[in-house]
Amino acid sequence: MNAQSLLGLVCLGAAVLHAASTPPNALLVLEKEQNTLVIVDPSSLTIVARVPVGANPHEVAVSDDGKTAYISNYSGNTIAVVDLVAQKPLAPIDLGALRLPHGLEFVGGKLYFTAEGAKVVGRYDPATQKIDWVIGTGQNRTHMVTVSKDLKRVFTSNVSSDTISIIEQSAPQGPPPPGRGRGPGGGPGRGPGPGGRPGGPPMRGGAPDWNVTNIAVGHGSEGFDLTPDGKELWVANALDGTISIIDVASKKVVQTIPSTQAANRLKITLDGKYVFVSDMEGKELLVIDAATRKEYKRIALPDTSEGLLMAPGGRTAYTTLNTRDAVAAIDLGTMKMTGEVKTGRGPDGLSWAARK
User: How large is the average pLDDT for residues 50-70?
Assistant: First the structure.
């Protein structure tokens, strides 16, 4: 075979890889060391496309319609945006002074994100293409984020402060006391906007406020998850080898139990029965019975694990295998690894895209 024919075959192979369409249900994987997003067909565990996403991508979230992915660029002040149908990058979101974005969650038509460099949680509205809400935690390394189903509570882990922040919507504010909160000419003043920023709507008329409660947990608190009923928050403390269980209503740690020594991520199965904990030093995935708070099983893996994802349907979990450069599929019925997909270097953040 001559060089020209060989080049033609190589180009054809590349075209086939990127010509495969994104499946209606797709597994998304970030190749952290290659600055790319990988789109995987979960039914065959094959890669259908790769898309560049900017420097140091760490976490990925998907729009409600499953057509757009958002990726945090952890070394700057941007969130990358990817059209999953066309498999191409779009214009990134410029966060301005909100540096070092990391945690992401898309819910209620908006993108919630953390920005470690500013010690805040923020929210981006794709419809207006603006950041419409920011809350400061006052904590170091505000890292991961999740939001309650009713959108009234936002949770974030603060790795270097060893805390969890619960950001809770309070009752609407009443009219200001006499002589206070008045604007020029004696008219009603404008109260703080979302996150305490000036220039929000007048407080007279019942604008909601937000309160931040910082709860001390173990050292190196990073990965966490909210139980399906929203009553408990389970937090992996990587430096302690423990898990803190927080009662959301009382905002207190009610129990601390053993975990793996290098826990990175924690996810709860969709039925709420089991808690999965990844381990960046051991070749096992820890599974805890949520009811008894006891170890249920350790799932053998070919390498250490990091990112975790519970796929819709409740049958499969996925975890990234660090130095193996792969993602493992776990059958939740048998609690065993059933397959893997080889990726590029540094697989980490995972998400699921269900196109509607």
Answer: 98
Burial of 106 (0-12, 13-18, 19+ CB in 10 A): buried
Provide the strand spans (E) within 217-261. Answer: 221-226, 232-237, 242-247, 252-258
Closest CA to 304 of 257, 250, 346, 254: 346
Comparing CA positions, the residue from 74, 77, 89 lying closest to residue 36 is 89
State phi, psi for 194 to the nearest 5 degrees. Answer: -55, 130
- Separation between Cα atoms, residue 222 and residue 220, nearest integer Å: 6
DSSP state of 19: H
Give pLDDT tens digits for 284-302: 999 999 999 999 999 999 9
- Residue at 188: amino acid letter: P
Whether the CB-CB separation of 323 and 260 falls below 8 Å is answered with no
Cβ atoms within 10 Å of 220's Cβ, excluding its own: 21
Residue 151 identity: L
Asked if the model's pLDDT at residue 174 lies above 80, the reply is: no
Confidence class of residue 182 from pLDDT cuts 50, 70 and 90?
Answer: very low
pLDDT of residue 208: 76
Amino acid at 208: P
Helix (H, G, I), strand (E, B) or coil at 232: strand
Q: What average pLDDT does the segment 80-89 reach? A: 98
The C-alpha angle 18, 20, 22, rounded to 5 degrees, equals 105
pLDDT of residue 196: 42
**Closest CA relative to residue 352, chosen from 102, 36, 106, 175:** 106
Beta strands in 3-119 (DSSP E): 25-31, 36-41, 46-52, 57-62, 68-73, 78-83, 88-94, 101-107, 110-115
Return the sign of the alpha-carbon dihedral for residues 47, 48, 49, 55: negative
* Res. 15: pLDDT tops 60: no
